[in-house]
Write a structure and sequence with these properties.
The chain is α+β, with helices and mostly antiparallel strands and 212 residues long. The protein folds into two domains: 142 residues, no CATH class; 54 residues. A seven-stranded antiparallel β-sheet has the order 4-3-2-5-6-1-7. Helix 5 crosses helix 7 and helix 6 crosses helix 7. The protein is globular, with a radius of gyration of 19 Å. The termini are far apart.
């Protein structure tokens, strides 16, 4: 595992973003206060956003838009992928090799972004770059990984923390095995083995406390 992720941070910020292609597109459909459940960069350089829709919003979406409707035991709201070249805010965050987890439009031109970044210096670099570009930034939350002694090794703890914060354990997943392993600089098989061994340790610790 590369040393760059030894002290990662989970950050939530509000940004006044007047360049957001999503807000611009969906505002034209009469849709406001969108929830972006997932944000991913693609190999083509564009940015993909997974937009969750409630029942009233769904009625306003044109029929030719591809809507993902949960079926069977699947949880969650109907959603759709929206792809664009990205805005300055998304591109600034992603250019620092951060995990962009989600976004939510709070009011006109204001969006709440949740992301994980590898170091405090990378975090301050993102905030400075956004402010220097003229964006108003309000930091709502900033939490760092703090190693604890006990069940897991520090390496296992760090990877589980990143996987949890990054949405690996969410349904649907916000980050997959390959993407997470690429961020961490390890192979998918190595990451899978670390998670398997860590899960075993957690389960053994839990069940050893159970009465016989």
């Amino acid at each position: 595992m590369t040393d760059v992720w030894r002290k990662p941070y989970h950050v939530v910020i509000e940004v006044e973003n007047r360049q957001c292609k999503i807000l611009e597109k969906f505002a034209s459909l009469g849709l406001k206060h969108l929830k972006v459940a997932d944000i991913r960069s693609s190999s083509s350089g564009s940015i993909k956003h997974l937009i969750e829709l409630d029942r009233d919003q769904l009625k306003k979406v044109p029929k030719d838009f591809k809507i993902i409707v949960p079926t069977g035991k699947a949880q969650g709201k109907p959603s759709m992928w929206f792809e664009s070249e990205g805005c300055e805010v998304c591109n600034t965050i992603l250019s620092r090799d951060a995990f962009l987890i989600s976004g939510k439009s709070m009011e006109e031109h204001t969006i709440m972004y949740s992301f994980i970044v590898s170091t405090f210096e990378a975090y301050t670099s993102i905030i400075s770059a956004l402010e220097n570009s003229g964006h108003k930034v309000n930091v709502l939350k900033r939490g760092s990984f703090e190693p604890k002694t006990g069940i897991l090794t520090e390496k296992q703890e760090r990877i589980f923390w990143l996987a949890l914060k990054g949405g690996f354990f969410d349904y649907p997943r916000k980050i997959g095995m390959r993407e997470l392993s690429a961020k961490l600089g390890i192979s998918p098989s190595t990451l899978s083995e670390i998670l398997r061994r860590g899960t075993r340790r957690l389960l053994e610790h839990y069940f050893e406390k159970e009465p016989s």
